[in-house]
Specification:
The protein has 757 residues and is an alpha/beta fold. It has 4 domains: 209 residues, Periplasmic binding protein-like II (D-Maltodextrin-Binding Protein, domain 2, 3-Layer(aba) Sandwich); 191 residues, D-Maltodextrin-Binding Protein, domain 2 (3-Layer(aba) Sandwich); 181 residues, no CATH class; 83 residues, no CATH class. It is 56% helix and 10% strand. Strands 1, 2, 3, 6, 7, 8, 9, 10 and 11 form a 9-stranded mixed β-sheet that branches. The longest helix has 28 residues. The chain is elongated, with a radius of gyration of 40 Å. The termini are far apart. InterPro entries: Bact_solute-bd_prot1, GPCR_3_C, SBP.
């Protein structure tokens, strides 16, 4: 059926457009009640204006109500978002709650440069900034507004000669006085104040504007939620409930307001600006909401904006702009303002003496509006629900005001470790540790210039030791990228420092392994003569790889958990980016693999024997650390401090282990050599009596072993094993690798003698 209707509608549109040159624009809107809305007369007014001026533009209102649909008000908000996301061209203009401007803004047309500037200037710039702008784009104009106000029973106030309260304390004092007097006259159904702190958006607005009404001065912004001002506001809110109302009265919604408004059984009420004709027939008079002190008030501003879909057909844009211009103009709104059908955002109306005969211009001028903070969270309904839940835990429960306000603040606050100790001292501690270790690592380079230690550091040249230490410091300071707010830059710096740190700390050793290889070919000799070119080659590769990597954007994901503090983390959701990171990791692991292969083949070389063993330990530590950090990325951690601290601690530990295994442990070489000598001496003395009888047999056995190896020399694996047992990097005699305790003992003793402290 809907398909038939749609085809029929398209045919009518085409007929009007091509037969008469008519532009038919579809307007999408929602109202709970079909007859109680201002959209229809607005649309009719424009169509009459269009016909009168031969504009050939017709607006068609597509109005969803409770009568013709099953969706709720919140469902309608989601429906508009779905339609806009789909880039549908079915609707051209949208009437939407200004609460959703941050949600719809990206899908609506920027009209800032499509409307005359003098037209835009008719509206209060603060109002437009609060309700109509999205990322500096004007995505709509206010069609109608509403404000929360304070209703006073003038009949009762006049009866007891009491003025309209200007502060919350005056509300308590006046309310209690009148209630007591009325009770003496058997008026027991009277209430003092309804509060309107229910579970709907009305409740959120009541909380929000109440805190705003307790700010320090008229020009002060909304108080910090964890400030003393906000705490005092909640205390005053609870004082009102306990002294002039009850849990039941405060928690009732708009139906309760309507009933009390009609029966007059309330001294004070709080609600939105009500219908003018009904207000004129009641005992109530509107005023601004009271504040903590005189002159300070607060009023949530709500309303509906008129916006144009960004995906509108090009041929319909001019017609839509004209419709938007007229419906938001003085001409288009004046009559509706006069009869009280809308509240306009055009300021000049409230200085018009003729209009002010029919509307309360004085009230409109002194309102102190504040918009709902709809931009703080993408899902504002969820946010406002938790906001009310926490505040009500104090208002209707026993939680402390400081605690509930902290929980509310945590809904939007992004926590991160920093040098400030306000939330945590972890960031400062990490910074001090990294700075101290960095200085210590650099100062330790002076050991290279102490003569008695020079033999222990012959494995690398002094410039290469400097490069290696700089690499370790780079690895160490990778953790500092976790200090401060998460940005796209910090997301890229983390793997960048890891990559450069790896290159600087490992490539000098890679160079040494290559030039220490048993068989010297042309490539090895060329590398040996150009060590800085060799190192620079890997640095240039890193620069190229990481320069491309920096272009790929990270997605900064907010991690939110119930009753936990929000924090942000870096996510690479770009498919190309993920593959690129995998490629870089493969490249680094391939270097580690080549180094381990060389170490295996050079394992028995006496002059670098200990260097190789500690290098293996370092490579294993590096490999396991990278794997663990990768796994950690996919583990959900609730606490923001633990999330950063675990990663930073691992990196600090990695840096310290690299520093110990590659550098500082060399100071202990004499002890390792001495231990080896003792072991060898024990073996020699234990076998001394058997040496003569077994020597010939041993030599024969080794000769047989060598013969077998030679016969299998064509095998790569066998050749690698052969290299593994070679104790010198020089080209050996085929039988020179035969074990000899005497020669090994002499070698160690010579090494020990030359390296004694």
């Amino acid at each position: 059926m809907m398909s038939i209707i749609n085809h029929y509608f398209i045919l009518i549109t085409l007929f009007l457009k091509y037969a008469f040159g008519e532009t038919l624009l579809n307007v999408f809107a929602y109202s709970e009640y079909e007859n109680n809305q201002a959209y229809t007369p607005f649309i009719q007014g424009f169509n009459e204006y269009s016909n009168k001026n031969n504009l050939n533009i017709t607006l068609k209102l597509n109005l969803l109500t409770k009568k013709n649909s099953t969706i709720s008000y919140n469902d309608f908000g989601s429906l508009i978002e779905v339609l806009l996301k789909k880039k549908t061209q079915k609707y051209d203009l949208y009437l939407y709650d200004n609460l959703y401007t941050p949600v719809y803004g990206q899908y609506l047309l920027d009209v800032k440069n499509l409307l005359p500037q003098e037209h835009i200037n008719m509206f209060n710039p603060k109002l437009l900034n609060q309700t109509c702008y999205y990322n500096d784009e004007l995505v709509g104009l206010p069609l109608t507004l509403t404000y929360s106000v304070f209703y006073s029973n003038q009949k009762l106030l006049n009866k007891y000669n009491k003025p309209v309260p200007k502060t919350w304390d005056e509300v308590i004092e006046t309310g209690q006085y009148i209630l007591e007097k009325e009770k003496q006259q058997n008026n027991t159904d009277l209430i003092i104040y309804n509060g309107l702190f229910d579970e709907s958006q009305n409740g959120f607005s009541s909380i929000y504007e109440f805190i705003y009404s307790c700010r320090d001065s008229v020009n002060s912004s909304f108080p910090e939620l964890t400030s003393e001002t906000a705490v005092n506001a909640l205390k005053k809110m609870k004082e009102l409930k306990e002294k002039i109302a009850s849990d039941d009265i405060f928690s009732l919604g708009e139906d309760y307001f309507v009933s009390k408004f009609y029966d007059g059984k309330a001294i004070f009420l709080k609600y939105w600006i009500f219908y003018k004709d009904l207000l004129d027939m009641s005992d109530y008079k509107m005023s601004i909401l009271p504040g903590l002190v005189k002159g300070i008030s607060g009023s949530v501003v709500a309303g509906f904006n008129f916006g144009i879909g960004r995906n509108i057909k090009k041929e319909n844009i001019n017609g839509a702009i004209e419709a938007l211009r007229y419906l938001s103009s003085k001409e288009g709104q004046r009559e509706f303002v006069r009869i009280g059908q809308i509240i306009s955002g055009i300021e000049e109306f409230y200085d018009d003496e003729e209009l002010c005969v029919d509307i309360d211009c004085d009230l409109m001028k002194i309102l102190q509006p504040i918009p709902r903070p709809s931009s703080v969270k993408k899902n504002f309904e969820e946010y406002s629900g938790k906001y009310m839940k926490y505040i009500y835990n104090y208002l209707y429960g026993n939680d402390k005001p400081e605690d509930v306000l902290q929980r509310v603040d945590d809904l939007t606050k992004i926590y991160y470790i920093s040098l400030s100790t306000k939330d945590s001292s972890v960031g400062l501690i990490i910074f001090i540790i990294n700075l101290t270790l960095s200085i210590l690592f650099l100062l330790s380079l002076f050991i290279l210039y102490i003569k008695k230690y020079e033999p222990y550091f012959e494995f690398l040249s002094k410039p290469f030791w400097l490069i290696l230490i700089i690499g370790i410091i780079m690895l160490l300071n990778t953790g500092t990228t976790k200090i401060g707010k998460v940005t796209n830059l910090s997301c890229h710096l983390y793997p960048t420092l890891l990559s450069f740190g790896f290159t600087f700390s490992i490539i000098p050793i890679f160079y040494k392994l290559i030039i220490s290889f048993h068989d010297k070919n042309k490539v090895i000799l060329w590398i040996e003569q150009r060590k800085y070119s060799f190192f620079s080659f890997f640095v240039i590769i890193d620069i190229i790889l990481l320069s491309i990597f920096m272009i790929i954007p990270y997605e900064i994901q907010t991690v939110s958990r119930e009753n936990e503090k929000n924090y942000e983390k870096c996510n690479m959701n770009n498919t190309f980016g993920i593959l690129y990171v995998d490629f870089i990791l493969f490249y680094k692991f391939f270097i580690i693999f080549l180094m381990l292969l060389l170490i295996f083949m050079e394992w028995s070389i006496d002059e670098i024997k200990y260097d190789l063993r500690f290098t293996v330990g370092c490579l294993y530590v590096d490999t396991l650390t990278i794997i663990f950090l990768l796994i950690l990325h996919y583990i959900s951690i609730k606490n923001y401090i633990y999330y950063s601290l675990i990663r930073v601690s691992i990196i600090i530990l990695l840096s310290i282990m690299n520093y110990i295994l590659l550098f500082i442990i060399r100071l202990l070489f004499p002890y390792f050599i001495k231990a080896d000598e003792n072991i060898l001496e024990g073996k020699i003395f234990m076998n001394d009596t058997n040496m003569s009888s077994n020597c010939i047999q041993s030599i024969k056995s080794e000769e047989t072993h060598k013969t077998n190896i030679t016969n299998r020399s064509s095998s790569v694996l066998t050749k690698m094993v052969s290299y593994h047992y070679k104790r010198t990097s020089e080209a050996p005699d085929p039988f020179s690798e035969m074990p000899s305790y005497k020669s090994e003992k002499e070698t160690i003793r010579t090494s020990l003698s030359s390296n004694k402290l």
